[in-house]
Structure formats: C-alpha cells, structure tokens
Amino acid sequence: MRPLIVAVCLICVATACSPGAGLPAAFGRPSPSEFEQPLAEPMVRTVANPPSGASALAGVHKAGLRSAQFQVIGTEMTPRPQGQIGARVYHLDGKLTTEPSALELQPWDDPMTGIQYDIDGRGDFVSIGSTIYVRTNTLGAWQVVTASDSYWSLFANINPASWDQISDARTVGEASVGGSAAWVVQAKDSTGRLFKVWLRQRDNYPLRYTIPWVNVKGLTYYVNALYRDFNSDLAINPPDMSNRGIVPPGKPVELAAGSVMVTEVTFDCVGTSVRQPASEHKFVLITLAYLDTGPGGMTVQPSDWRLYGDGVVAAEPIETGAPDLLRAQVLSRGQRTTGKLAFEVPEDAYQLVTVGKLVGATAVVSTGLPMLPVGQSPCASAN
User: For domain 243-366, is the CATH number 3.40.50.300?
Assistant: First the structure.
C-alpha cells in the first residue's frame, strides 16, 4: 500500500477474475498459487429468514461501536524475475474510530519500503473523514488523497463508518468466526467493488472484512481485516505535515525562521581526550549550518537531532569535548552558526539518516558514509 505500488497498479473493478487467470507457463512467471486468498473464508451456511443485508449493515451503526483494533492479512504486488509481478502476503495492525471516522495502519517492513524507523509514532496510512494521508515510509513526506481514490479506499473502507455508502447489500448466510455466529453480508462499496463483512449476530459488531482487487494485468489481490478489542479508548489525529521528505547533504531545509543544512558528513575513529569510540565503534560527525532569516529568533539545540541506520536507532548526540561541536544558542535575524553533531555508531555503519525535530519542520537528511569493500575496516589505520 505504497505510492510505488499504486504507480503500477491502476485499479479496475474487482469482478469475477480468477486468481492467476491467463498466466502462460513461461520462465519467470509467478506461480498462480501466489494469488490465492491468504485467509480462508469460513464455511457459509444457508438459513431461513436471515436479516436483509441492508438491515444487518444498518445494525452496525446502531450497535454503539466507537472503536476497534484490527489486523490486516492481505496480498500485494511484488517484483519477480524477468520483470514479472507476483504476490506476497503481508500482515499489519491497525486501529479505527467511528465518531469521528478515522483509521490508521501501522508501518511494516518489506523489500519496497526497507526498514521503517519510528520517528513520530505514526503509521504509513491515516484516514480522517474524507481525507487520506499516505507516505512511502516513515521517513518520507505525507501526501494527501481523497477517500474516493480507488486504491486507498480499499483500506479506508475497513472502517464500518464508511459502510453507509454501500449498495446492493444482501445476506448470503451465516458462518462461525472465532467461535461466534456471524451474518455474512456481501455488498458493493462506493466504487462498485464487491466486498464481504462478517457481523456478530449477538451485537452486530464486525468480525471480518474481505475485499479482492484486480490490477491492470488482471491479477487478483486481497485485503482482509480481522477486528478485535472493541470500544477501547483510541484517538487518531491528522499526521504532522512538517516532514517534507528525505533531502541530501547540501540542500537546505526550510524552518519557521530560516533554514538548516547538513554541509558535511565524516567519521572519526580516534576521538578526543574527553571521549574515544568503544572497541569496533566510530564517531560520525555531521556538520550543520543554521541561518536565521526571521521573523523572530531561531533556537539551535543539538538535542533536537537523532541518528538512525546501521546498528543505531534514535541515537542521541554525544559530548566529545571537541571545540567545533554545535552548541545550544538562540540566533537573531541575519545570524548564522555552524557546528558538528557527534554520534557513536558501529564501525561498519554506513547507511545513516539524521532526523531533527525543529520548529517549523521535521528535517530528514540522508547522511550515509561511503561503503568500503567487504572485510575492509574504516578504522584499520587508527587501530
């Protein structure tokens, strides 16, 4: 569920497309089994005089459901040899509220996003009313789309608050979900896609949501949600939009009263008389340049910054006693200051990102070091 996927998966209406249909037996072609439903549907039993689909779904809104947590078990597109597109199973957790209507999915690690560092405690997908916020990964900038978007609505519609826009609802029978008797209701969402929900008979709370979707190549994928922990105290707020995405060294990040820029990234294996790197560690030195263009003063605080990457998660700057370290201060309009942040990292750490929580922006800067050949130590001469 990332923009990279959407770029290659313009959605068509999920009709009766069989998984893997039309796949010739060619080298590099994904196995049809990849496209099977990853979560088997419970056996449906036909019963006499079930409630209509419309009344069953209306009962959800009358049931007093305020919030829920859930797990998504789905399939998404993934690269395969020879330029083919396959399917992979993913799992992630989420939470929702119905009044106000809001939903958030937590991030997950996969080959497309890489490791997702928690810099703000948020996921990669948030829907608030008719607005959806998405980002490629936790380091990226948020993008805003509407709830009518055919792809992102697959996830927004997990929220029962969106089911007042459905059509053609019908009850297909009853089934057992987690030991609870449930009505199985099939309907069409606001984009015309068929989906199913399993509603617990004793209180009309949703237990499961399932929707298939089809990409432009006719390959079928699934989104399944299993609901739990109803009516706990939850709040889902719009994300902080101050993160404008990862920038390279040398590119200024605009702040409320000026800018900040990483001008140099180096490492030190020796240290100072005050502090030396531990065995098999090194110091990474990141030079920051602040410029105050007003209005008002600009607060410079080294503790605003953290380092993420190989072997480090939210590492704080350290004091080495070096005279050129960045010091806390307040700049006036027109003033500049430059100084270094020092972080201690494993000796083989190269892929690094520096994050600053600043007034007016969250600065995310790629601060990686050149990678050396395998077995070659960056601190060999120092040792």
Answer: no
CB contact at 8 A, 77 and 85? yes
Q: What angle do CA 126, 127, 130 make, to 5 degrees?
A: 155
Instruction: Report the alpha-carbon distance of residue 87 to residue 217 in Å, rounded.
Output: 13
Report the distance separating Cα 214 and Cα 187, nearest Å. Answer: 17
pTM: 0.85
CB atoms within 10 A of CB 10: 10
More confident position, 18 or 82? 82
pLDDT in tens, 336-347: 999 999 999 999
Residues paired with 173 in a beta bridge: 184
Exposure of 186 by Cβ count < 10 A (0-12 exposed, 13-18 middle, 19+ buried)? middle
Position of tokens 């990141």?
286
Asked if 186 and 53 count as a contact pair (C-beta separation under 8 A), the reply is yes
pLDDT of residue 29: 76
SS in 3 state form for 5-70?
HHHCCCCECCCCCCCCCCCCCCCCCCCHHHHCCCCCCCCCECCCCCCCHHHHHHHHHHCCCCEEEE
> Model confidence over 41-67: pLDDT tens digits?
999 999 999 999 999 999 998 999 999
**Taking the domains of the chain in order of start, what are their residue ranges?**
3-228, 243-366
Contact between residue 314 and residue 306 where contact means Cβ atoms under 8 Å apart? yes
CB 341 within 8 A of CB 285: yes
The mean pLDDT value for 203-210 works out to: 97
pLDDT greater than 70 at residue 267? yes
CA dihedral sign, ordered 171, 173, 176, 177 = negative
What single DSSP character describes residue 138? T
User: Tokens at residue 103, please?
Assistant: 């939903």
Q: Which CATH architecture has domain 3-228?
A: Clam (2.50)
Amino acid in the structure at residue 154: L
Distance in angstroms (rounded) separating the CA atoms of residues 225 and 202: 20
* C-beta of residue 339 within 8 angstroms of C-beta of residue 329: no
